[in-house]
């Protein structure tokens, strides 16, 4: 299950009738608990059968207590969070630093925070700080994304 | 279908009985043709339903001739290529610049080239230049990856 949430800053509430507009300081979030079925499906789709994701012995040899979820699968929370609130958003770049392992069954929360917003012709170039957490405060992935947004109106998707 | 190839530099052939050792100058490659089923499966797995991947009208509004494959799905070729040749490789970081769209049905070739190899205790820290191409020369994704390798012996996986 993936849940999506938007934690807008207070300026977004200046009028309850106006569309909510993305501002620096907002936090877009989503979360997902990764199952062994997710790991298997992702492996079958990408043919990434690194035994680190299946073999407890190899995982322990590599310093992990159990098999871990593919980093790129966890990172997919970032574009998914951006696209959920901005239909048609185009991904320009993403940096990913894999800080901690995600074990099967763990819930990960992705936080996407705009740090720079710039209009470019009829679109907006948005730079986001992107982080994934587990256990509330353990950073799993740290990085930055740049995306082209069709506008700054936040779709709630509810 | 994903195909995997290793284009070793000539030093790797110094003995046909010795294991092939990764060197600066080697190129690890794999390729994949992305189908609409791949896009649908990836969307269902990650819940990234950006209409850019399904809706021709939204895709054209965003400057593409057709719906495009998720960038992170294409990027999964990089860890998959590294893991194919180094079982138990641990992904440390990846940067991704999405340069050109990948349309459904297009074949993408990933090239992973070691640019720095350093021993760290009983493992190796490898920095790779990572690029995806389509139509032989069109760069789709450009970036860099760092991975911890258990050793430098290349598994051919044949």
Automatic annotation (TrEMBL), chains A, B:
Residues 31-121 form the MaoC-like domain. One of its GO terms (biological process) is fatty acid biosynthetic process. InterPro entries: HotDog_dom_sf, MaoC-like_dom, UPF0336/Enoyl-CoA_hydratase. It holds the Pfam family MaoC_dehydratas. This is MaoC-like domain-containing protein. It comes from the Eukaryota. GO terms for cellular component: mitochondrion. GO terms for molecular function: (3R)-hydroxyacyl-[acyl-carrier-protein] dehydratase activity.
């Amino acid at each position: 299950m993936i849940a999506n949430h938007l934690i807008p800053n207070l300026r977004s509430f200046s009028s309850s009738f106006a569309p909510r507009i993305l501002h620096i300081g907002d936090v877009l979030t989503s979360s997902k608990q990764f199952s062994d079925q997710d790991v298997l499906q992702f492996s079958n789709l990408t043919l990434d059968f690194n035994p680190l994701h299946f073999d407890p012995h190899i995982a322990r040899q590599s310093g992990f207590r159990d098999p871990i979820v593919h980093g790129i699968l966890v990172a997919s929370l970032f574009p998914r969070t951006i696209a959920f609130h901005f239909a048609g958003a185009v991904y320009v770049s993403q940096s990913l630093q894999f800080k901690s392992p995600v074990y099967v069954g763990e819930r990960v929360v992705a936080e996407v925070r705009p740090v720079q917003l710039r209009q470019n012709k009829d679109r907006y170039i948005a730079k986001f700080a992107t982080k994934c957490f587990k256990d509330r405060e353990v950073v799993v992935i740290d990085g930055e994304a740049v995306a082209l947004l069709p506008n700054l109106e936040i779709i709630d998707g509810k």
